[in-house]
Design brief:
heterodimer, A: about 850 residues, alpha+beta, 4-stranded mixed sheet, about 40% helix, about 15% strand, disordered N terminus, B: about 475 residues, Methylamine Dehydrogenase, Chain H, 2 domains, 4-stranded antiparallel sheet, about 15% helix
Chain lengths: ~850, ~475
């Protein structure tokens, strides 16, 4: 006997949870996309997307639960969420979801058309979808098992020959298509190194089988070219648990004006499988809260869509943290949506140390620290930021970071050339030259590299490929190197694009020229100088014709501007490229520039790595990146303005103590990140704390490591990740902790030499008659921008007393400070 | 009498028909082996052996794997073999990551185990793929849906018949009229190479099923006698040749192996595996002392027929070599392939220069005395040699006749748009036959260059 009351409770739970899930009552309307479809062949179909809109504007994907009813089954029929043509005519398909309706107008003509499977537009997409031609499989340069395809089908001519003719046509069998070796292997019926990639029910299998059965037709010339790939819905949708899925619709538009649904033969990649996965049918299933991108590939086109998935977090209450500017609004908006709390604002000591290191690369002097800590005015942080940005050290340090990427080395540019180039870069930073002008100057530079330092851009990048790859990586944030040999695997960049951009730069000539005379030089040197000396300047000029040949098509390439087309032929193509890159509408330059600034200050890019923008590496906060880029362009590409904007935000000024244990909170900038201080600033910091500065050769006395045009080889700097400046990649600067770093800090010469130097800070303070307590306090202020705590002070004093030897005791205490995490880390 | 003959007749022609019966004994060879070969051997066979379990022979199927005993004769429900196949949950189900077996296939396997899992009338260690290939002989298409590329073509001794590789058959045509004379059924899916015996009216047919099996068959080309399957291999056989005295056969294959057979006994004599890729062509020298084999590994190797000793390696192709021939007059080798050149060389001279004892590095630097003939617009796919001339078929659509001594181009045959895929000559009637990738056959008069006949070697399809 079951208690009736229990039944009642169960009933209530079932009913409420059911209505809670369906939420029919709060839907304002449903929409179906597309609302009209034209089938111009019996081989067309459409998977429409049905979206429910609630009163608050939130959306829900109803594609899988909607019911489709054809007004005339002689014209169109529906199966699940698929609509297929049945005969010529016009009809309306009614879509019913959650009690609401919408309609799709269906027009079918040419139902009697015989349309074989297209090799170029269908079979190739099937191969890509099944993964046959991926870089790890038959798409690798040497193929696999003697079977080699072009990566992602970039070379249809070669692929057709390999599939239908080469090796005695062993791979395809038009008489019995199912018996084709490529299908037998793909379905795992015959031992296949790549495993089972295809199932008989897959659309890709059916297309490949039918293409073979129809005689392996060649339509390389006839197939209409792909013009555009449209993906519905657009970026920005927010999926809210329990509605964690979203169906995508992929429509291909061709040159002949036709359109087809290619959802089933497009390939999908999620930017973060831990956040969301995408099935081969284009259905996204979100798993964990966060922003993610889905990259959709059909043939050579790659489109990215970003989404956010939010889950209610138990006990989460948004506390309306204080905001300083628009940056905070955009960061807070995302944090609130994702259910993450930002950390508190950092202390004045933390802020001072952080902002000084980030802006000038140097620790503040003790008097600066003391006056800042003592200052009680509310705008003191903002005033400090302004002050730091006006310092020469800011220009020297940020110029040095720029010089890393521009590969300023004595070896490639000569010592004189490197110095002049660095000075030119620093002056640009100091004068706050608009960044677009800076880039324009670099790209269009010509002349003697000593007289015209920006021309060193073309000396540092010694050949066309190097200029192409570094320009695109530096200023467009794209690693286009892959496209040199094959189409980019994760993005839209094709081999034609690579060589089209290369053709912009291939007219640059590089000639060594005699060095300018030096007063009072010996005869032998004068004689040597008269020659084309690799240790002298170089003349950079632009020839009238280019030489770039596309290696696959053997075509001479015309200079090409991304998203635009061929460059005008009546001028230096570099100028056309620079004009394009620096125009306010350019979608690359500003985003890359502000993202690099952001990454320098926050320790990670909004797009990260900062020079690897591609469809499956989306910005972690797209709105923020858009805003910063937009603000940058609107204000004349003012680097200092962007710095000021970020530095003044609460987001920059957050404490490192995260409030959430979510491993992704750093991606969304909920707290400041602890990170190792970079090699040069750390070296200078040790110098400043000990008061024993390194003196470098060939520069004015007092020049810091963070202000050097080029640095001599030093074990300390190398251990802490100083880049060799061999590539234009930000990744060259190491940031990983290593054993070598520990050894350098424990007993390397950079520390030991300074601790035992008679002129160091400790000895000076002892000579000045300061007490142990005063000395310890000063060391803490110098190294950590804060006085010691009582317990730190007590323990330090106790240690010095116990040591017996005062100097030795003080040295040990300072050694301990320099080896503390608080010192070597930025926080 | 009739009662006795009929079932035998059915069994020979359509062995699979037995599988339809729901009662009676399940036959391992014709019912179980095909299922195992189709669904299981890929992952539990010679190439991969997951769980240390191989099912490429009856004995191996019955042996223990990592999981112990897999088949308990008489007890299907205690057999792991069946348990994994019938499992509802796809994760651990066999065949892994593939669609499940059909109900009928499962019933066949279950009943076979129930009945004791016996291997009736078979050699327990025999390779199942070969067993299935031998017993399962699909018919050729009555009417071709689409022509097949003519990978091989051959004149018979009298020059009155032209054999052409087809689909599960060899077709025999009248080279004067283009009339279909006979269809020789019972062949493997593809026929890659044909050779008429120099002594008897006997045709050697090499081919197979790409990636799955290779087969060497012998047939009296009268259309009456079924073929005798001399040997099977793990992948397509690509070349076949008779020794000049007709006593021996040699084959080359995608299994990277050259084999020779004694024709009378059918016994395999040699198995040569010194190849890094497919062996694409094979030819005997004039005396039957040496054989030359071309390979996709970019080398041509010459062996002593009696011992199998490697006599020389020709290294100057730098691209896959697709075909090879011996000139009976000069005993020189002509080899050709992807590098679009005919290489003409004397294996004895090359062997002397090459010096097998020489350091490998030196060998590859060496200039060897060979000559090349150029002027081809695409790969060279087939060569045939006769009386000091070489006829070569190229993917540029043409067959060229060169004088071996002078290297002069004497004639060019055919301007067909598609690849000239195979070539044969009959010295007596001075006729040349070209098989096209498009399935067409063209016969020419060698002297005049005139086209005698042009037909589509695909029964049921019209003339081109």
């Amino acid at each position: 006997m079951i208690c009736p009351r229990l039944i009642a409770i169960v009933w209530v739970i079932v009913v409420t949870s059911f209505t809670g899930l369906s939420k029919a009552e709060d839907l304002a309307r449903i929409e179906v996309y597309p609302a009209r479809v034209v089938f111009d062949s019996p081989r067309r179909e459409i998977h429409p997307i049905v979206t429910g809109f609630a009163d608050d504007g939130s959306t829900r994907d109803l594609t899988r639960t909607a019911r489709f009813t054809s007004g005339d089954p002689r014209v169109a029929v529906s199966a699940g969420h698929l609509i297929q043509p049945a005969g010529n005519g016009v009809t309306t398909v009614v879509v019913l979801a959650e009690g609401q309706t919408a309609t799709i107008e269906v027009v079918v003509d040419h139902f009697d058309r015989l349309e074989p499977v297209s090799f170029r537009n269908e079979a190739l997409a099937g191969l890509t979808k099944a993964g046959c031609n991926s870089g790890g499989c038959h798409g690798s340069p040497s193929g696999k098992g003697g079977f080699s395809l072009s990566m992602m089908g970039y070379d249809p001519v070669a692929d057709l020959r390999v599939l239908t003719r080469a090796s005695w046509s062993r791979r395809t069998n038009p008489i019995e298509p199912e018996a084709s070796l490529m299908l037998r292997k793909g379905t795992g019926r015959i031992a296949h190194g790549g495993g089972t990639r295809l199932h008989e029910t897959d659309p890709a299998f059916r297309l490949l089988r039918d293409w073979i059965g129809e005689g392996c037709g060649t339509d390389l010339d006839k197939a209409p070219a792909l013009v555009k790939v449209e993906v519905y819905p657009d970026s920005g949708r927010i999926l809210r648990e329990p509605n964690s899925s979203q169906q995508l619709l992929v429509l291909a538009h061709y040159a002949d004006g036709s359109t087809r649904d290619v959802t089933e033969i497009s390939s999908y990649t999620s930017s973060d499988e831990s956040v969301a996965t995408v099935g081969p049918d284009g259905r996204i299933v979100a798993k964990d809260r966060g922003e993610f991108a889905v990259s959709i590939r059909y043939l050579h086109e790659v489109v990215a869509r970003t989404f956010t998935f939010v889950k209610p977090v138990a006990g989460f209450v948004w506390l309306n943290p204080p905001r300083n500017n628009r940056v905070d609004d955009l960061v807070h908006g995302q944090l609130k949506l994702l259910g993450l709390l930002p950390s508190e604002t950092c202390s004045d000591s933390e802020f001072l140390r952080r902002v000084s290191l980030d802006v000038t690369g140097l620790l503040p002097e003790i008097d600066e620290t003391q006056s800042f800590l003592a200052d009680s005015s509310p705008d003191k942080r903002s005033r400090l930021i302004d002050k730091l940005l006006d310092r020469a050290e800011y220009a020297a340090y940020w110029g040095q970071r720029q010089a890393d990427l521009l590969r300023v080395t004595k070896e490639s540019l000569t010592e004189e050339g490197a110095r002049r180039y660095y000075d030119w870069i620093v002056e640009s930073v100091r004068a706050n030259q608009p960044f677009d002008r800076f880039v324009h100057d670099l790209l269009t530079s010509e002349g003697n590299t000593y007289d015209k330092p920006s021309a060193n851009y073309y000396r540092a990048a010694a050949d066309t490929n190097s200029v192409t790859e570094s320009t695109v990586q530096l200023f467009m944030g794209v690693r286009i190197g892959c496209a040199k040999c094959h189409n980019h695997p994760f993005d839209r960049w094709t081999q034609d694009n690579y060589y089209g951009i290369a053709a912009v730069f291939d007219r640059v000539t590089r000639d060594l020229i005699p060095a300018p005379p030096v007063e009072g030089e010996p005869k032998a040197a004068k004689k040597r100088r008269g020659k084309r000396d690799p240790d002298g300047p170089m003349m950079i000029k632009v020839a009238s014709t280019g030489t770039t040949i596309q290696p696959r098509t053997h075509q001479q390439m015309k200079p090409w501007l991304p998203l635009v087309g061929d460059a005008p032929s009546d001028q230096d193509a570099r100028k056309a490229f620079a004009d394009w890159l620096t125009s306010p509408e350019n979608p690359f330059l500003a985003r890359v520039a502000v993202n690099r600034i952001w990454a320098h200050l926050l320790g990670r890019g909004i797009v990260d790595p900062v020079d690897d923008f591609h469809s499956t590496n989306p910005p972690s906060n797209a709105a923020l990146l858009d805003y910063l880029a937009d603000d940058f362009v609107k204000n004349g590409c003012d680097r200092k303005r962007t710095l000021r904007l970020i530095l003044n935000s609460r987001t920059y000024q957050r404490s490192v103590a995260a409030k959430s244990s979510d491993p992704n909170e750093a991606r969304y900038f909920a707290s400041a990140q602890v990170r190792l201080i970079a090699a040069e600033p750390l070296f200078d910091a040790i110098g400043r704390v000990t008061e024993i500065q390194e003196s470098f050769r060939g520069v004015p006395k007092g020049t810091r490591a963070t202000q050097m045009p080029t640095l001599p080889r030093m074990e300390f700097l190398e251990a802490f990740g100083q880049p060799k400046r061999e590539t234009a990649c930000q990744c060259e600067r190491g940031s990983e902790p290593s054993l070598a770093q520990a050894l350098q800090l424990l007993n390397g010469p950079a520390i030991q030499k300074r601790l035992s130097d008679r002129d160091n800070r400790l000895n000076r303070l002892v000579r000045d008659g300061k007490s142990n307590r005063e000395i310890i306090e000063e060391c803490y202020l110098a190294a950590l921008c804060r006085p010691p705590t009582n317990s730190e002070l007590t323990r330090s004093l106790g240690y010095i007393d116990a040591a017996g030897d005062r100097n030795r005791g003080l040295e040990d205490v300072l050694w301990a400070i320099l080896n503390s995490k608080e010192f070597i880390f930025q926080h | 009498m009739v009662k006795f003959l009929l079932p035998v007749f059915i069994a020979v022609l359509t062995p699979a028909a037995l599988g339809n019966a729901d009662d009676g004994l399940v036959d391992f060879k014709t019912q179980v082996a095909p299922i195992v070969v189709e669904h299981c051997v890929a992952c539990h066979g010679p190439k991969k052996a997951f769980a240390n379990y191989r099912v490429d022979s009856y004995a191996r199927m019955m042996a223990d794997s990592d999981a112990g005993k897999n088949i308990e004769p008489g007890k299907p429900d205690d057999s792991l073999f069946l348990e994994l196949i019938v499992q509802a949950e796809p994760t651990g189900r066999m065949p892994k990551n593939s669609d499940p077996l059909s109900e009928r296939e499962i019933t066949t396997l279950r009943r076979w185990i129930e009945q004791g899992a016996k291997g009736q009338g078979i050699e327990p260690t025999a390779d199942l793929a070969g067993m299935v290939a031998r017993s399962n002989r699909p018919a050729a298409p009555v009417i071709y849906r689409t022509p097949v590329p003519i990978a091989t073509i051959a004149f018979n001794q009298s020059g009155e018949e032209l054999a052409v590789g087809g689909y599960h058959e060899v077709t025999v045509w009248d080279p004067s009229s283009g009339k279909l004379l006979r269809r020789l059924a019972g062949m493997a899916q593809r026929t890659q190479a044909l050779a008429y015996s120099p002594k008897a009216d006997l045709l050697a047919v090499a081919g197979g099923k790409p990636g799955e099996s290779g087969e060497l068959a012998l047939i009296v080309p009268d259309g009456q006698t079924p073929p005798r399957i001399l040997a099977t291999a793990s992948d397509l056989l690509l070349g076949v040749a008779f020794s000049p005295d007709g006593s021996m056969l040699a084959t080359a294959g995608a299994d990277r192996t050259v084999r020779t057979y004694d024709l009378a006994s059918g016994k395999e004599l040699l198995q040569l595996k010194q190849f890094a890729d497919w062996v694409t062509g094979i030819a005997f020298d004039r005396e039957g002392v040496s054989i030359a084999a071309s390979s996709s590994d970019k080398l041509v190797k010459v062996f002593e027929v009696r011992t199998g000793k490697l006599q020389t390696t020709y290294i100057l192709h730098n691209e896959p070599v697709l075909t090879v021939g011996f000139d009976c007059e000069s005993n020189k080798v002509v080899s050709a392939g992807v590098d679009r050149k005919l290489h003409v060389w004397d294996p004895k001279v090359i062997a002397a220069e090459d010096g097998t004892a020489a350091l490998l590095e030196d060998r590859f630097k060496k200039e060897l005395s060979s000559k090349t003939i150029e002027g081809f617009g695409d790969e060279i796919l087939d060569v045939v040699l006769s009386r000091g001339f070489v006829f070569s078929a190229s993917a540029d659509g043409k067959v060229r006749q060169h004088d071996l001594k002078t290297s002069n181009l004497l004639k060019t045959f055919g301007e067909s748009g598609d690849w000239a895929y195979s070539v044969a000559i009959d010295s007596e009637s001075k006729r040349l036959a070209v098989g096209g990738f498009d399935g067409s056959v063209r016969v020419y008069d060698i002297e005049t260059g005139r086209e005698i006949v042009h037909f589509l070697a695909a029964p049921g399809l019209d003339r081109p």
